[in-house]
Amino acid sequence: MINFSGLLLQFLEIVLALAAAPLLTGWVNQCRAWMQNKSAPPLFQPYRMLHKLFYKESVLADHATPLFRMVPYIVFGCMTLACGIIPTLSTDLPLSPAADAIALVGLLALARVFISLAAMDIGTAFGTLGARREMLVGFLAEPALLMVLFSASLITQSTLLPTIVDKLVHRELAIYPSLAFAGVAFTMVSLAENARVPVDNPATHLELTMIHEALILEYSGRHLALVEWAASLKLFAYSCIGIALFFPWGIATVETPIELVMALPILAGKLAIGGALLALIETSSAKMRIFRVPEFLTSAFLLAVIGMLIHFLLGA
Question: How far apart are CA 150 and CA 245, in angstroms?
């Protein structure tokens, strides 16, 4: 039997992610500008940028392969699907059986591999340099992210994100030391995966330090718009993962109109607070040297492992 209400909720979650992701990016940019005593850009500036890029012509290198043209659509699709399997408004989703922690990390890894291949496809020095750095960051960040997700799955006895949210919401309110360590590790991984300070600076175009920008130097027009939109979706996805694992209260676990209506403003409030905290971290931190990034991500991995060990030893 087809669950039409579940399909509607799934559609609304995807539409919400597509619409709210650029808004979250604009909010973070605004907060960071305010904290740095600068004139803040408009909140809807990311939408204006996407609108402008979609109407501009895409310029491609003469020797660009079909892979280079397909990658923006593949990356955008991966990020959209990742946002679709993360419970943001409700846990009653048709894609819930696919919302496994390993599948989610696999989607993020698939997008990284394709964007790195596209950067090397043209053969420019900066593209290849950015691809190598991106794969290095992914090689170190993905195990740490898996350990964070496994820490939550050990508490709830499930690797499905909707099940994790459902069980954490109905547990007694308490501080779990394992989740505390996992939360710090997740914050460090999120900064690295979303190219934020101190790992990378999304506003820089300095060739010797940039990672994300080096990957997309050859893109323009609608292709660049899709890649930038996918970057906003990735930030939205990581924010929702953090909410689902560490602050799941407010996500509807039963299909009642009241819970669904309340879930949207609660999610908006959590994202606003998270965006402001992200801007605070970026403002109070200095960008580290690229050679220090492995130490940073290794520390995140060790913190996540310590969280798992605490759960095994203390059961908390």
Answer: 11
User: 314 with 66: CB under 8 angstroms?
Assistant: no
> Tell me, what DSSP letter sits at residue 98?
G
Please give the C-alpha separations between residue 295 and each of 1, 178, 180, 190, in angstroms, as whole numbers. Answer: 51, 21, 20, 15
Q: How does pLDDT run across 55-68, given as a tens digit for each residue?
A: 999 988 888 899 99
Can you tell me the distance from the alpha carbon of 272 to that of 146, in angstroms, rounded to the nearest whole number? 26
Q: Scanning the structure block, which residue is given the tokens 């879930």?
A: 263
Q: Cα torsion at 10, 225, 108, 11 (round to 10°)? A: 0
Specify whether the CB–CB gap between 244 and 165 falls below 8 A.
Answer: yes
Judge contact between 28 and 46, C-beta under 8 A: no
The 10s digit of each residue's pLDDT in 152-207 is: 898 888 888 888 888 888 777 667 888 999 999 999 999 999 989 889 887 776 66
Quick one: average pLDDT of 145-150? 94
